[in-house]
Design a protein that fits this description.
70 residues, mainly beta, 17% strand
């Protein structure tokens, strides 16, 4: 599995990852990304890109299809 870093986001909103846009990450269907919210808590989120579709008027994005709370 390839692992790439997209940069950190500092508490004040700065950092190398602060201005990254998801559409610039070159993700394809089936890719997963990991988002770590730390500040001492180390909360990890794994997000899977299931499908890319054209936006629909009146629909709020991003949409969450499912989630696992553990």
């Amino acid at each position: 599995m390839e692992v790439r870093g997209f940069g950190e986001i500092e508490p004040d909103g700065g950092g190398a990852g602060a201005k990254k846009k998801i559409d610039k990450l070159e993700l394809v269907e089936g890719n997963t990304i990991e988002y770590v919210y730390d500040f001492g808590d180390d909360i990890q989120h794994v997000i899977k890109l299931e499908k890319v579709v054209e936006p629909v008027d009146g629909v709020k994005y991003p949409r969450i299809n499912s989630k696992n709370i553990s």
